[in-house]
Design goal:
Elements lengths: L2 H25 L30 E4 L15 E11 L4 H16 L4 E11 L8 E10 L4 E11 L2 E2 L2 H10 L3 H7 L9 E6 L4 H6 L1
Parallel strand pairs: 1-2, 2-3
Antiparallel strand pairs: 3-4, 4-5, 5-6, 5-7
Helix pairs in contact: 1-3, 3-4
Keywords: Signal
Length: 207
Amino acid sequence: MSLPRVRTTLTALTMTFAACAGVLSAGAPAAAARPAGTASRSVLAPFREPDFAATCAWHTFGEGEQPPLWLMFVNPLCVEYSKRDITFDDGGALTFLLAEPSRFAIALPTCRYYQKDHWSVQTTSGATPLVAWDGQYWWDKSGGHAGARLANFRIDGRTVGIGDAALALRDSGFPHVADALDAYGQAPGETGGTVDLPFDLTCALAG
């Protein structure tokens, strides 16, 4: 695979990291919540399931379906959303936008949160998606960790992810760099990681 292909893959990969970072930052409490003298942590590690995953009781919601607000009191809160009809010409995109505020509202207050979702954004029904992926995002504020993983990430039908970058680098003669990236994504369209979160006193006391 050519070096221009490597550069193209890595450029698109920046967009993938931005999507992961947005989710992880949503789970991080403000720096002001840290006790004095406590440093913020941001160590990046390979993606893993949260420790509470085995205890999840999953709440599943369809296209544009708004979750009830009482779910914000569930701990851990585990939800799965279908977001495959974010379509511009049939009202699907508008339905998606109207549902998102309630989804954020139940997520942000939680101490332990795990979300799975399935995205597809397209201009018209049946068209090749502009962007699509299957996501996993979680945080555990009491334990001080968060993780995100995007699988099958595609832009205009083409996979983009750490897995693609690793394959491109290996084919271009950079096997050692590719080996280092493998921990964060091996399959085409895959990118994932786990980070440390700042200390959250409220969630730590809640357990």
